[in-house]
Specification:
The protein has about 350 residues and is an alpha+beta fold. It has helices spanning about 25-30, 75-95, 115-130, 180-190, 195-205, 210-215, 230-245, 260-265, 270-280, 295-300, 315-325, and strands spanning about 40-45, 55, 60-70, 100-110, 135-145, 150-155, 175, 220-225, 245-250, 285, 310, 335-340, 345-349. Helix 8 packs across helix 10 (about 295-300) and helix 9 packs across helix 10.
Length: about 350
Amino acid sequence: MATETIRLTQFSHGGGCGCKIAPAVLAEMLSTTLPGVVPPELLVGMETSDDAAVYRLNDQQALVATTDFFMPIVDDPYDFGRIAAANALSDVYAMGAQPILALAIVGMPVDKLPLSVIGRILEGGSSICREAGIPLAGGHSIDSVEPIYGLVALGLVHPDRVRRNAAGQPGDVLILGKPLGIGILSAALKKEKLDTAGYAAMMRHTTQLNRVGTALAMRDGVHAITDVTGFGLLGHLLEICRGSGCGAQLSFGRLPLIDRAVAFAREGIVTGASGRNWASYGRSVQLASGITPWQQALLTDPQTSGGLLVSCAPEAGDEVLRLFHEAGFEAAAVIGSLNEGAVQVTVAS
């Protein structure tokens, strides 16, 4: 097979964070998992489905550890590597940490992909690590049926500056850093409907490092941070609600959205993962009567290397927006708030 005719997405049954196991299925799988050893130094484990594990090293440092990998969301091997690496590092930034090194996770159908193509995937991942200022210090590879790439990412944070997804407070405002619609763009790409401008928008958002999370964690008014990935905005917001013991209200009209994704959603171009997401947690969501199917699809759309979702005190909102905008996240916006109600999300039009 000639390199120029290869479409990486043809080898994968799902792409990007849309590959994630549906939330309800994952919860059932983990329900029988024994906690194992839980030392007092383990500040964050599996209990609230947070973005990474955190282990206290001393009074000044905690180690943040995460891993993330998936099948191709785009056909260009270099771009695939960049997206996967940025997505993995996002979990470190979401905890308020600074990445220090990464290890590569590589699974490739070596009998189907030329070594030059695999090399470009690795180059793409390495380029993002260089942008983040960290070494790609090794990794592990296997011969796999589908192409898989990602990173183990490690970071450091002061124990008092760890930002969990379970520390939101009623009255907090919710701020989203990146626009929604990446999963829909990936579905359009597979259908060969995504034009050059749409692909450029997809790459711009998916490879933009969420390094602003480190600065956000330094602000006392910032209570909780997570990143929006495979479970969609509603799924990751519900994780904040469950961990924090509160409800949330969203205004669809305030959500930052990718214009081309809106157009595709109106045409009915969505991902299968969007439907699986809704089936998993839709009973915990109350949609206003005016919310249409295409809007629901954007609310559940799996994001790959999506934006940070911040829960902060109202008086910290302007500062959080300023930090986002100064870091190049022009679309960042206040999208709703947390409340003292039941653990559910109410979406107004």
